[in-house]
């Protein structure tokens, strides 16, 4: 998503609000998916998601378009909020053992499909925390590699390499489980 | 069970695991976003609440601008306060000269000296003319002898003998000192006065100046001071009077007594019958004549002090002189001077403020950076 959040804030606050609203609507579910994968608690994920958007709203005037994409900026805020929540709760950010209510298995699915999904969930649990975060940012939140790099604070090529390794490792874990 | 065919197959399956928010939560969040995440603080519900919320919702840049404007206003107010409370140079000099004034003591001094009630601040000199003579009428002597028929203060004397003195400081530009000094000589000459000593020096502001010790006939003192005041800006002016009526009257009485005694001794000498008696009277006559001469000399000095006023006149350059010009011919140069003065005060206030705020801001900045680093590391540790 290109464009500015705040560049227009001082000139026309309404436009800034519209820009933020656009960012919110395009990212709400993605942020929740990423945060829920990180904190592994639906209630906490809702609180953190709301906190992240509120922080972003308050800081919208500080956003500098020259320093990155709005989505990367938003997910950086969400990441900090999620990690703060995890620190507050004294828990480690483990993507393993996804909560049951986060892994929904449709009733009409075949047993084989359900088995594949559970195997994938178990394979995710074998990945390291940072690898799982990359998976969540890429495939749950739908961020581009450049955005992921900005969120986790590495270079774009480094983010791509790490993501590739995480996917390969996940696939190996799935192949082993199946 | 069939494994994933490729990465695309795996990714497609991952997408199915994506957590989704509850519709109720999504709707609630939508409402909060639409409302702009209203804050609740302890001020909420109070009259200050809306204003606080409006202030809090301002972008940081506007807050910084507002804070900067408030800081500038504070500096301006502090500058005005400092400028107003700063003592005026001319007035200070005048006060100091007044305090430094010492009574010119002599054995015939009345001991009580009056500062003429003239304004010693630049620009108010014109109203001082003649005031000293008025105050002189209140002069009293303190060393009067009770033997005088007019009492210790010579209060019944028909004519008061008043010694007058004056000190004046003029402010001038260094280039004007020579001209001003020449005008001083002219004014002294016009008043039939005497220049006891003078000294004129050139140079830069503060170094250049002139000093005059003058004797001006008392009857022309006021006119002479007026002429001096017209030469350049008056920084300070002080006039003093010393009532010397009592010692003058007393000396006159003593002199009359002495003369009467001399006349008596002369009569006694004429009637002396023996050499021994004649020698004794001559010795006494000689002593009395010396005493009379002494009394006459002291009386002459008193008359001279009453007739001639001592005036100390200085021409100064530099800061004191500059301040003196403010009250007289205020112009563009003075305006620039005032502006520079105010800017200097503002700079001083700013420097003092920075000296106080700077270290605190630096400490706050370092603390913020340290906390930020600590927080970042703590967050990364959470992921480890």
Topology of this structure?
The complex is a heterodimer of chains A (178) and B (384).
Chain A: H1 13-39, H2 42-58, H3 70-89, H4 111-126, H5 129-140, H6 145-152, H7 156-177
Chain B: H1 7-16, H2 23-35, H3 49-56, H4 60-85, H5 89-100, E1 113-115, H6 131-136, E2 162-171, H7 177-190, E3 194-201, E4 209-217, H8 221-231, E5 233-243, H9 245-270, H10 275-307, E6 308-316, H11 319-326, H12 332-383
Parallel strand pairs in B: 2-6
Antiparallel strand pairs in B: 1-5, 2-5, 3-4, 4-6
Helix pairs in contact in B: 4-12, 7-8, 9-10
Describe the structure.
- The complex is a heterodimer of chains A (178) and B (384).
- Chain A has 178 residues and is mainly α.
- Chain A has helices spanning 13-39, 42-58, 70-89, 111-126, 129-140, 145-152, 156-177.
- Helix content of chain A is 69%, strand content 0%.
- The relative contact order of chain A is 0.13.
- Helix content of chain B is 57%, strand content 13%.
- Chain B has a six-stranded mixed beta sheet with strand order 1-5-2-6-4-3.
- The two termini of chain B are 34 Å apart.
- Classes of the chains: A mainly alpha (178), B alpha+beta (384).
- Chain A binds chain B through residues 6, 9-10, 17, 20-21, 24, 28-29, 32-33, 36-37, 42, 45-46, 49-50, 53-54, 57-58, 61-62, 79-80, 83-84, 86-87, 92-93, 98, 102-103, 112, 115-117, 119-121, 124, 129-130, 133, 135, 139-140, 167, 170-171, 174-175, 178, and chain B through 1-4, 7, 10-11, 13-22, 25-26, 29, 32-34, 36-37, 59-62, 378-379, 382-384.
